[in-house]
């Protein structure tokens, strides 16, 4: 191998070296391999996710979303985007008439956010998103016939817990009881 080729490979390796040293060994392999470009590659996967959803190709969409989350698990936006899709789109009465299936979609969104809290750089944002989903459940449980376990009261109590977790993690989140008080309930 020529000296120029060795020098070229060495220069390429040195370009990535600061990020290898900055990432903890526990960072996922894709994140370590792509370094600062992981977010860009993940963004492309999110574009594919959105395209697949528009085409109704949900299996492919969820595979693209998982790739994006594996590439850039520290960004809260991806976790929140997928959870919102599951809880608001897939669990809507227009898209899923069966209340049991709607509950499963909402639970999948909440489980996703809980998984993300262990990997995300801003877990409080994900706790806040879970609280918002649970408030949505509390508001629409009876009108939509969702049949959430424990009803609207249980969903509201779980939302309060999620917002408390978000506040403990440094994210400003209202307490649902404050909302009730402001609305005169």
Could you explain how this protein is built, in words?
The chain is 75% helix and 0% strand. It has a domain at 74-182. It has 185 residues and is an all-alpha fold. The protein is built from 9 helices and no strands. Mean pLDDT is 82; it is low at 10-25. The longest helix is centred in the C-terminal third of the chain and has 22 residues, at 123-144.
Inertia-based shape: flat
N-to-C series of helices and strands: HHHHHHHHH
- Give me the Rg, rounded: 21 Å
Number of strands: 0
Helicity, as a percent range: over 70%
N-to-C CA distance: 78 Å
What composes the largest sheet?
none
Structural class: mainly alpha
Q: What count of helical segments does DSSP give?
A: 9
**How large a portion of the residues is in β-strands, by DSSP E?**
under 5%
Low-confidence stretches: 10-25
Mean pLDDT: 82
In short:
This protein is mainly alpha-helical and 185 residues long. 75% of the residues lie in helices and 0% in strands.
What tags apply to this protein structure?
185 residues, mainly alpha, 9 helices, 0% strand
Helix and strand topology:
Blueprint: H1 3-22, H2 29-34, H3 38-55, H4 58-71, H5 76-90, H6 99-117, H7 123-144, H8 151-168, H9 176-182
